[in-house]
Amino acid sequence: MLTIAMPKGRIFEEALQLLRAAGFPLPLEFAQSRKLILTSEEAQLTFILAKPMDVPTYVEHGVCDVGIAGKDVLLEEQKDVYEVLDLKISACHLAVAGISGQTLDVVTPKIATKYPKVAAAYYRDKGEQVEIIKLNGSIELAPLIGLADRIVDIVSTGRTLQENGLVEFEKVSEITSRMIVNRASYYMKGPKIQEMVERLKEIV
Ligand code: PRP
């Protein structure tokens, strides 16, 4: 049995489709379930449905052999896991955004984000001094209510920015979901994991 951690919602639905296409017989009811642990004896897989930012933690600690997580989460969490495959699902990008036409005329601009490490590294590389403000969601609020001058956040369709009168200024990084593997599992369950990677590779 392989244990797989992944976020609830869209990534889980897309990953289920991918795994089915790769030949894993997974029940259709899985997508509708509210259970946090789902097992398919037939496919020899157990799914642990977690918060996106927690997926690399489960895998690093070895309570899950495999994880599916966005590259944004992997960049931010920097856990000690193997990244083995780009699944090319849930594509989006990380961007710097703010109020249209608003210039940065302060010495240390405030940057609101759910990704403080990624944002700090981005501005450090550019040699710009900023103050990072960590938020847990609805990041687009920050410039609208005067908490920050810019945000670093995920842009998918661009609707959230547009409907809140914000524009994208810079692209930080392209994002897709990746398959990650626990270091010990990679050796202990090598053939099983390798088979899954190969089958998924063909579909991707
Ligand atoms: C994400 C992201 C943006 C939005 C972008 O938020 O933080 O707010 O989606 O999508 P769009 O470009 O298609 O509008 P999420 O729904 O994960 O909620 P959050 O506010 O809790 O981060």
From TrEMBL:
Residues 51-201 form the ATP phosphoribosyltransferase catalytic domain. It catalyses: 1-(5-phospho-beta-D-ribosyl)-ATP + diphosphate = 5-phospho-alpha-D-ribose 1-diphosphate + ATP. Heteromultimer composed of HisG and HisZ subunits. This is ATP phosphoribosyltransferase. GO terms for cellular component: cytoplasm. GO terms for biological process: L-histidine biosynthetic process. InterPro entries: ATP_PRibTrfase_cat (IPR013820), ATP_PRibTrfase_CS (IPR018198), ATP_PRibTrfase_HisG (IPR001348), ATP_PRibTrfase_HisG_short (IPR024893). Keywords: Amino-acid biosynthesis, ATP-binding, Cytoplasm, Glycosyltransferase, Histidine biosynthesis, Nucleotide-binding, Transferase. It is found in: Cytoplasm. Catalyzes the condensation of ATP and 5-phosphoribose 1-diphosphate to form N'-(5'-phosphoribosyl)-ATP (PR-ATP). Has a crucial role in the pathway because the rate of histidine biosynthesis seems to be controlled primarily by regulation of HisG enzymatic activity. Its EC number is 2.4.2.17. Pathway: Amino-acid biosynthesis; L-histidine biosynthesis; L-histidine from 5-phospho-alpha-D-ribose 1-diphosphate: step 1/9. One of its GO terms (molecular function) is ATP binding. The gene is hisG. Belongs to the ATP phosphoribosyltransferase family. Short subfamily. Lacks the C-terminal regulatory region which is replaced by HisZ.
